[in-house]
Design brief:
This protein is an all-alpha fold. The chain has eight helices and no strands. Helix 5 packs antiparallel against helix 6.
Length: 156
């Protein structure tokens, strides 16, 4: 199977989740296993100097990210928290690894940041934490500091 076709298949896994929504739950276990293997391949070989593999890895990463984003949006918050909560640390690590590339691909970087936004939008526990902090006057300063750090990182 061609490498490009493999990446398109990964991306289509997210498209299917978007279309069938919560019914995607029954396919989640094998899909997550495939996506983890793809992430492992990407991270393990990220330092490759082979131009063909570098291009392939960019496409692989886009396919992985598209799949996860589609799954998160398709499943909705409750199912994401139920099934994807254990995946979040690996997804954040995967996104972080993209930023360590010697010459990061901008499309991949944008997609990784979008995926992090998707994670934040479906993990209601995170939203509850942020809202609780925003409502507490003695924590507000810490929240503002955290927001300034994020904004500063986005500007640099």
């Amino acid at each position: 199977m061609s490498l490009l076709l493999q990446n398109l298949i990964l991306s289509s896994l997210g498209d299917i989740a978007l279309v069938i929504g919560e019914q995607y739950e029954k396919y989640l276990e094998p899909v997550l296993r495939v996506l983890k293997q793809a992430m492992q391949l990407s991270v393990t070989n990220a330092a490759s100097q082979d131009d063909e593999f570098v291009d392939y890895n960019h496409e692989l990463r886009l396919g992985i990210i598209d799949a996860y984003s589609g799954i998160m949006q398709g499943l909705g918050s409750a199912k994401c928290e139920q099934y994807l909560k254990p995946e979040v640390a690996g997804l954040v690590e995967f996104a972080s690894s993209i930023g360590t590339d010697a010459d990061p691909d901008l499309d991949v970087c944008k997609s990784a940041v979008d995926m992090l936004g998707d994670i934040c939008s479906v993990m209601t526990e995170w939203l509850k934490l942020v809202n609780t902090c925003k409502q507490s006057s003695h924590i507000q300063e810490d929240c503002e500091w955290a927001v300034q750090q994020i904004e500063g990182a986005l500007r640099s």
